[in-house]
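Researcher: Checking consistency across runs. Here is ABC transporter permease again:
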Amino acid sequence: MSPLKRIAYFFGLPILLIALWYALSFGSTNFFVPKPIELAQTLWTTWIGERFVDDVLPSLGRLAVGLFFAIGLGIVLGLLIGSTRWLRNLLEPLLEFFRAIPPPVLVPLLMLLIGVNDSMKVAVIISGAIWPVLLNTVEGVRAVDSVLSDSCRSYGIRGFARIRYFVLPAVTPQIMAGVRQSLSIGLILMVISEMFASSSGLGFTIVQFQRNFAIPEMWSGIVVLGLIGLGLAIIFQFVERRVLHWYHGLKEITHDS
């Protein structure tokens, strides 16, 4: 696909939606739905400056730390559990139990155990974002080709070498699928964790705007969250293309044939 066509696909629908929004809100006096130009001005005046440093950057920092530990722990534990049959059978009921618990309900418990601080907010992100990576990694290890696994064993490839050169490349596509899900879950939990007993952050600020009936400012905060999500998606696609270049190349060859 040509670069011009990529740009057209990327910006085409957002431009159409903004134009439709502008047409539907033209002449409207609805206090709860700001016009596009008003929202753009509010977005600039509200978030470009001191509030960006005080609220957006700390939120991004907590999100980055939470996702780093969630992805890292998910991969390591997933490889360990998936590679050890007795451990997988032992932990599978426990993993299903904890996965079924919605992370937001853990916020009061984590506040009691850890306290109201950044560590609590990071723990909330980890508690929810770890599961897609962990479970996808376990399932990926379980689905590794048994013939290739026996070949590795026959050639004496065991231990860390087997994980590095055989298991990890085989499960990387499923790991990346789990990471994609973890990014959106982490962003949601970042906001939720900041709505409880917090004095800064995007979640806290959006709630304060809502309580003070600062409707354009509230909408601008939601737009900031959407832009962060878009940025995470772009970064993920960039990283995935380089980590899985062999996988995408194989798919293209298979498709062409």
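Researcher: Does this match what you'd expect to see?
Model: One thing to look at in this run: The two ends are 19 Å apart (CA to CA).
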